[in-house]
Amino acid sequence: MKTIVIVGGGYGGVALAKALEKQHHSDDSVRILLIEAKSHFYHTVGGLRAAVQDLDDVVFIPYANVFTSSRHQVVHATVNRFDKKAVYLDSVTQDGGDQIAYDFLVIATGTNYAAPARIECAEMDQGKQQLQQIRQQIKQARHVLIVGGGPVGIELAGELKDANLKDQQVTLIHSQSQLGHPSYMPLKVHHKLVHLMTSHGIQVLLDDKVDLPPSSSGTMVVVPSTPLATSHKGADLSSVDLIVMATGNRPSPQWIQASVPDLLQSDNYVKVKPTLQVDHPDFPNLFVLGDIAGLDEAKLAYRAANGHTPVVAANINTLLTNGTHLKEYKKGIDIMLITFGKSNGVTILPWGIVLGGWMSSLIKSKTLFYDRYWKELNQPVPNSLK
Ligand SMILES: Cc1cc2nc3c(=O)[nH]c(=O)nc-3n(C[C@H](O)[C@H](O)[C@H](O)COP(=O)(O)OP(=O)(O)OC[C@H]3O[C@@H](n4cnc5c(N)ncnc54)[C@H](O)[C@@H]3O)c2cc1C
């Protein structure tokens, strides 16, 4: 029996688990174990709307049906470290062990986002409580300051606008003169988004910064204990009573650092070869996919699931059957969809093509792919989504 261990049941890990099960459908010499720290899949892409609207029964999706065969399993545990033979867990599994031997190992542990984009709680009940608290804080706030004008900050501004909370003022502050980053956001998109925000009464402060209370580091939602000063450029922020951090995602590589520090680049992403094996001579059976892979590209769920997954699945299959010719990953075209509430947003395509609100709403803003991921996890779609 060959064991394939995937660490991380996010968009990439789940897609790979399903692809491998399909590939080895009638092959009972292969066992797939998906190890995930959370008891449930958290649909990050829809997380910001869940901060203003009760979507608790929709945004957390059970892992129970990921596999159709009982030979394969989702293991609810955190991997603390690994070596050439096994992964070591923070808890004892149903089988009574705290380590799992592998023949192939896949790192799919993504990057960290602050809540509510990502609720990191291990158990669903705690996660729901955290979301409820965030919704309450947002509802009570009279002046919300969003720190960060990348896709998460912009999408959150759109959700706050849709929530239409009476008398609530929203300010977005961004340290650069252009929203997002010029590598993926053309100037015309920047102008369109600034217009969308300001025309909905959102104050946009560009090329400006604010001194934050120390408690804001690492969390998304902070109630300042003393009034904020003005921004560096002099905007009055003294009435801000809720700060929401949207300063991007970061890898949390502690378990890799504790295992094989050489695997990490200086920016803490994993060194990877075009075959999506890690770039380390001692680990030919170790693969990496999704956000944590040190690839020079926008970090996107569709890329993890549709770009990386087929390459990793094919290469594991080749090595399992003693083949030598491995596939190489080639980055596809960049497509980015940024919502602005349910009925607006922008879709950025290659060659400078930008689609506006109607099309963006049709593709993403309206539904945030909720039903798609219930289906992806082989779960019946909740009635509220039908
Ligand atoms: C608001 C928002 C909107 C977005 N919209 C889009 C969009 O429209 N389209 C798109 O393509 N992308 C979108 N993204 C980006 C997308 O969410 C990420 O690219 C995607 O989550 C990456 O998938 P992944 O599988 O690499 O990792 P993740 O989805 O981050 O999953 C990693 C998993 O690993 C688990 N884990 C971590 N460490 C351990 C460990 N040591 N042991 C066990 N388990 C562990 C975590 O609990 C997590 O479940 C959006 C992101 C945000 C925040």
From TrEMBL:
<keyword id="KW-0285">Flavoprotein</keyword>
<dbReference type="Pfam" id="PF07992">
    <property type="entry name" value="Pyr_redox_2"/>
</dbReference>
<comment type="similarity">
    <text>Belongs to the FAD-dependent oxidoreductase family.</text>
</comment>
<feature type="domain" description="FAD/NAD(P)-binding">
    <location>
        <begin position="3"/>
        <end position="304"/>
    </location>
</feature>
<keyword id="KW-0274">FAD</keyword>
<dbReference type="InterPro" id="IPR023753">
    <property type="entry name" value="FAD/NAD-binding_dom"/>
</dbReference>
<protein>
    <recommendedName>
        <fullName>FAD/NAD(P)-binding domain-containing protein</fullName>
    </recommendedName>
</protein>
<dbReference type="GO" id="GO:0005737">
    <property type="term" value="C:cytoplasm"/>
</dbReference>
<dbReference type="GO" id="GO:0004174">
    <property type="term" value="F:electron-transferring-flavoprotein dehydrogenase activity"/>
</dbReference>
<dbReference type="GO" id="GO:0050660">
    <property type="term" value="F:flavin adenine dinucleotide binding"/>
</dbReference>
<keyword id="KW-0560">Oxidoreductase</keyword>
<dbReference type="InterPro" id="IPR036188">
    <property type="entry name" value="FAD/NAD-bd_sf"/>
</dbReference>
